[in-house]
């Protein structure tokens, strides 16, 4: 009996570590923003490196960040974006790593497609209603089944979806205010090895959960050519629940444990400025703060018993960006942008599932108005990740007794198509 219980107890620890990965993934996503968040909610915004999205840069799709934006669009208007994300994340183990002979590592990034939409309807000259839908979080990575870091991760898949009904009012000729309610769903599957032997049996965690939050926004137009916007998306509390499964234990059968952890995804504050210089040129700037440090210590329950508190030690994340639009003609608008993001993941907590690091983004795009009702946006962006070290050693939140030391190099290519349609209404003021 003792031999049976001891392996099971060790599996409890492994499951707790696996759930730790789950919480980290859920709290952030194909991870094109700091941590695990997805910022690619607007095709037009992508072409600007998301500069000025809180002030309407990106058109109606910017309503994802700031619900007050929808007061700039008359009648019934929709904006949908479809984005292909191709990440490259190469992980290389240091030859001194004890398990290096299992395989030093390789590209773990998996491509994905993200869809998002915003719709707005003008009720009268003061009130608008709308809804935004998208995927604020998501991740997909896969390593070789046998590799040097297999006890810390083989596959990671996260799907996060949110829907936000909203209402906005034009309080004055220069001030609009908006508010929304967000329903958010997270689904996570993580796998890793139960040991260091080649082709070691895997363990897995499947978990999901719902949460509710809110969003606030305001736009200020101090002059006919200037728009200032601020948008806030609240934290969302979710109880991520599911099951952890593992290898067959002689005398005890297959390992299957119930797992649960409370999760608060972070607040996001976005500020933007949009300045029209003349009939052709418009410049934009933006800044974003994400409260990743709120993760702190997360209590994990395994089969109803608190196993341990997971220390994430994330820092807050920040991004600054600048962009420009050039109206080539009444039908064609050209866009470009640059952005820099400070990752919330430090060297002390970086792991093999998502080797997040600081990054520079460069983007270009265009908008094409086909007629008074239909317009298209096409954008491309490249994200340059800074080289980063990974040190899973004593003191690291994911350390389970086996050191793993290495480095990571990452970049991302993103292409997005936006479709905007106005149902017989006047042109927007943005």
UniProtKB/TrEMBL annotation:
<protein>
    <submittedName>
        <fullName>Long-chain fatty acid transport protein</fullName>
    </submittedName>
</protein>
<keyword id="KW-0472">Membrane</keyword>
<dbReference type="InterPro" id="IPR005017">
    <property type="entry name" value="OMPP1/FadL/TodX"/>
</dbReference>
<keyword id="KW-1134">Transmembrane beta strand</keyword>
<dbReference type="GO" id="GO:0015483">
    <property type="term" value="F:long-chain fatty acid transporting porin activity"/>
</dbReference>
<keyword id="KW-0732">Signal</keyword>
<feature type="signal peptide">
    <location>
        <begin position="1"/>
        <end position="33"/>
    </location>
</feature>
<keyword id="KW-0812">Transmembrane</keyword>
<comment type="similarity">
    <text>Belongs to the OmpP1/FadL family.</text>
</comment>
<dbReference type="GO" id="GO:0009279">
    <property type="term" value="C:cell outer membrane"/>
</dbReference>
<keyword id="KW-0998">Cell outer membrane</keyword>
<dbReference type="Pfam" id="PF03349">
    <property type="entry name" value="Toluene_X"/>
</dbReference>
């Amino acid at each position: 009996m003792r031999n049976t219980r001891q392996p099971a107890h060790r599996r409890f620890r492994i499951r707790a570590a696996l759930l730790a990965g789950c919480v980290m993934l859920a709290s952030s996503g194909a991870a094109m923003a700091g941590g695990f968040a997805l910022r690619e909610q607007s095709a037009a915004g992508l072409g600007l490196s998301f500069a000025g999205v809180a002030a309407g840069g990106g058109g109606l799709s910017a309503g994802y960040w700031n619900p007050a934006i929808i007061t700039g669009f008359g009648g019934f208007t929709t904006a949908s974006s479809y984005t292909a994300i191709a990440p490259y994340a190469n992980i290389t183990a240091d030859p001194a790593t004890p398990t290096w002979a299992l395989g030093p590592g390789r590209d773990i990034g998996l491509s994905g497609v993200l869809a998002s939409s915003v719709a707005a309807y003008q009720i009268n000259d003061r009130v608008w209603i709308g809804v935004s839908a998208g995927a604020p979080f998501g991740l997909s990575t896969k390593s070789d089944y046998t590799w040097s870091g297999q006890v810390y991760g083989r596959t990671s898949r996260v799907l996060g979806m949110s829907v936000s009904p909203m209402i906005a009012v034009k309080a004055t000729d220069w001030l609009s205010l908006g508010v929304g309610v967000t329903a958010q769903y997270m689904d996570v599957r993580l796998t890793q090895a139960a040991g260091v032997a080649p082709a070691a049996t895997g363990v897995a965690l499947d978990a999901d959960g719902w949460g509710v939050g809110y969003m606030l926004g305001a736009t200020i137009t101090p002059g006919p050519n200037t728009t200032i916007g601020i948008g806030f998306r609240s934290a969302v509390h979710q109880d991520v629940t599911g099951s952890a499964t593992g290898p067959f234990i002689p005398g005890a059968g297959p390992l299957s444990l119930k797992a649960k952890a409370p999760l608060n995804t972070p607040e996001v504050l976005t500020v933007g400025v949009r300045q029209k210089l003349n009939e052709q040129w418009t410049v934009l700037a933006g800044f974003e703060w994400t409260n990743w440090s709120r993760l702190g210590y997360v209590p994990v329950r395994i089969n109803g018993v608190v196993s341990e508190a997971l220390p994430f030690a994330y820092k807050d994340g920040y991004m600054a960006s600048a962009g420009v639009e050039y109206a080539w003609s009444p039908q064609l608008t050209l866009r470009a942008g640059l952005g820099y993001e400070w990752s919330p993941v430090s060297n002390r907590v970086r792991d093999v599932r998502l080797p997040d690091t600081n990054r520079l983004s460069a983007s270009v795009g265009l908008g094409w108005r086909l007629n008074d009702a239909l317009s298209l946006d096409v954008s491309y962006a490249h994200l340059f990740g800074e080289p980063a070290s990974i040190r899973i050693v004593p003191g690291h939140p994911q350390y389970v007794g086996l050191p793993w030391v290495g480095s990571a190099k990452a970049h991302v290519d993103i292409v997005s198509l936006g479709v905007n349609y106005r149902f017989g209404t006047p042109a927007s003021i943005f």
